[in-house]
Write a structure and sequence with these properties.
alpha+beta, three-stranded mixed sheet, 34% helix, Nucleotide-bd_a/b_plait_sf
Amino acid sequence: MASSFKHVTGAADRDSRIVKQLEFYFSDTNLPYDKFLQAKIRLNDGWVPISVLLTFKMLKSITRDSAVIASAVKDAVDSIVEVDETGLKIRRKPKIAAPAPDRRLFKDIVQRSIYCSGFPRTTTVDELLEFAATFGDNVITKTTPMRFKSQAFKGSLYFTFSTKDEAEKFLARESVEYNGMEIKRMWESDILGDYKAYSPFNYE
């Protein structure tokens, strides 16, 4: 089945995008392997200043207002993240403990992730998040391979699905288009075959 997408300006809700981006930072997919964020959460019982989170380009592209971020998280009662009483810090809820990083978890994440390329380099974060949402509420996106850092969007990103079955269904689509442009798709494991040195473990 073919899938196409055309961005509708203003269709995505700002607060929802803020929470979704924060949930990615503190997710099982990212947090166990994010050394910078791990160092920050060890300093203060898991709390990370919003000012630090605003150094992350994806969140900063949605809003630079810490009060807006605090309000969005406060209203998202079912989220995995929470804001402190001062409205200045955010953490993953202690009752939802993050898994420890290990080879099995890493392989599980990779086996649920699809590399997608062919997006215009001018595509905004809002547009990418809205596009991802058309394939499910729990699709996580990252614009660079795990452990890579990039200063600009290069036209490719990864979709990490809740299950491998969902990822397989996405890959099995006859075609996926973004604003009339065909999006190429392949397993992240195929990409890692060329980038094993960047894996936190010996990927097999």
